């Protein structure tokens, strides 16, 4: 199906499971050219399932628009799973904007979001700010969060 037809079907479709399938098909067909479609779905789709799929799909697209969309979702999406997917996806976005949002998320009240931020920060090129955030996360009161950082520090 041509990309324009996929985009039209995506806009018209009511079923979130079909929308997520259409979004994946569009991304598979268009690759980086689908970044704006994915960013739009991540920021405004009514289904958290579709937003989470958009976030995971943006992981592999190295474009500033993808990083910005993921950072916005990490900072402000109402759904925990979407925020966690955005944090994990930012692990492969080695841009200052990604690091900034991940460091903010490292201080989030929800330990699940902190755990995903810790994972992503361990995959970023190390800077003073990242090391400082990881040091704080290693002392996190949630055992899973601190264990994530401790395991990374022990790995070769």
What does this structure look like?
This protein is mainly alpha-helical. The chain has one domain (3-154): Leucine-rich Repeat Variant. 74% of the residues lie in helices and 0% in strands. It contains ten helices and no strands. The protein has helices at 3-12, 16-30, 35-44, 48-58, 64-76, 80-90, 96-105, 111-122, 128-138, 143-154. Helix 2 (16-30) runs parallel beside helix 4 (48-58), helix 6 packs parallel to helix 8 and helix 8 (111-122) runs parallel beside helix 10 (143-154). The longest helix has 15 residues, at 16-30. It starts with a helix and ends with a helix. The mean pLDDT is 95.
Give the domain tally: 1
**What separation lies between the terminal Cα atoms?**
46 Å
Spell out the CATH superfamily. Leucine-rich Repeat Variant
Pattern of helices and strands: HHHHHHHHHH
What's the CATH first level? Answer: Mainly Alpha
| CATH architecture descriptor text | Alpha Horseshoe
The CATH topology annotation reads as Leucine-rich Repeat Variant
Radius of gyration: 16 Å
Work out the helix count.
10
The fraction of residues assigned to DSSP E strands is under 5%
Overall structural class, as computed from helix and strand content, comes to mainly alpha
Residue ranges: pLDDT <50 for 5 or more in a row? Answer: none
If you average the pLDDT, what whole number results? Answer: 95
Helix content: over 70%
The dominant shape is elongated
Largest sheet: none
Q: From the structure provided, what is the oligomeric state, counting identical versus distinct chains?
A: single chain
What is the number of strand segments? 0
């Amino acid at each position: 199906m041509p990309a324009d037809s996929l985009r039209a079907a995506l806009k018209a479709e009511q079923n979130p499971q079909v929308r997520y399938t259409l979004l994946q098909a569009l991304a598979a067909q268009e690759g980086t050219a689908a970044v704006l479609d994915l960013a739009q779905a991540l920021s405004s789709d009514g289904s958290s399932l579709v937003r989470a799929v958009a976030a995971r799909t943006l992981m592999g697209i190295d474009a500033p628009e993808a990083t910005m969309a993921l950072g916005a979702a990490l900072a402000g999406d109402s759904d925990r799973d979407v925020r966690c997917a955005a944090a994990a996806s930012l692990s492969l976005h080695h841009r200052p904007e990604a690091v900034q949002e991940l460091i903010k998320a490292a201080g989030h009240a929800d330990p699940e979001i902190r755990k995903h931020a810790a994972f992503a920060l361990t995959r970023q090129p190390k800077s003073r700010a990242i090391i400082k955030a990881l040091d704080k996360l290693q002392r996190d009161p949630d055992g899973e969060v601190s264990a994530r950082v401790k395991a990374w520090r022990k790995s070769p």
